[in-house]
Amino acid sequence: MGDSLRILVVNAGSSSFKLSVLDDADQVVASEALAAPGGRVDEAALGVLIGRNRPIDAVGHRIVHGGSFFTEPVLVGPDVVKRLEALTDLAPLHQPKSLRALDLVSRFLPGVPAVACFDTAFHATIPPAAATYALPPEWRRRWDLRRYGFHGLSHSYVSRRAAELAGLPAGSLRVVTAHLGAGASLAAVQGGRSVDTTMGFTPLEGLVMATRSGSVDPGLVLWLEEHVGMPPTELASTLEHRSGLLGLTGTADMRDVLRAEQAGDGAALLAVGVYLHRLRAAIAGMAAAMGGLDVLAFTGGVGEHSPAIRWRAADGLGFLGIKLDGQANEAGAPADREIGVKAPAVVPETGVRAGRGEPGAAVPAGSTGRGPFVRTFVIEAREDIEIARGVRQVLGDAG
Q: Do 371 and 248 share a structural domain?
């Protein structure tokens, strides 16, 4: 396999089939989406789309769940497909769509290497204390019950990009990445490795999302099943599709919720309060997992496009050193930008941090510039770049 690769990135969602072609410089040379209601796509249209974007040297597929076995990108073959099929029960909403996309694209591109890149893989480094549920060992062993975490492709890219924007080595930083979109999760990334995250065994755990509840007391779910007679299928459907912002307000769109809140709507006021309460607490929890915080990065639809949510989340986290610059936070471009109040400069001769507000406070010579304010960024979500990186990693190793 040569050094020059033109990579097709495939992201099969619940209602769309997104494809983009990246060149060696990670520039998107083509990007298109096909409607895929219920995960079904027009195969003829897909064939036309792939045909007009040739040549394609390799394909990278976003796969939501890799279980405990797949902890890094992998070249797809029959054995890999069998293992992925066996994981369907862990991600019944996502895995079948990803596997169908893998099969369809491979049929149109026979002989072109396909690489599976996993949303769970980045979180394989989470230590046992953060990954383990307090359940009987026979349960955990038999069914591989643990916290897997998701959105790993996004968290991996954003944490690395945040270090680039800060001009600091990723290995020296404690970063909280906030992927806030229809699905939402945080990750604590220390030295470039995930050490904690808010999603768990499934993508339901953690933050309030567009239609997902986030964490609820398991006793509440058991009570509904036992005392109300609610069947598991209805419970699952409600927690996944009719909860979150939608359940609290009747709309899953944060923009609509914020407009209703401004108009004084009581349900919207409550929803934003619940959303921010959970978000602030989780950011603080991620910082605690690393013993502090150097960088906070917002990404995803809400994270990138809602200055109000960013501002109000940060407003309750001043004790961590998070303070936003109002003008920078409101600015709409560029996509990757710093929105936090920058730390005062270090006086090189003495190592004393100017303007810290602590007379005589000093930092080591050659300080990385940490504190007293956390570096805060808005970063465009680019899972496609992370997937392309995984493809090059695998094919480079195979070459």
A: yes
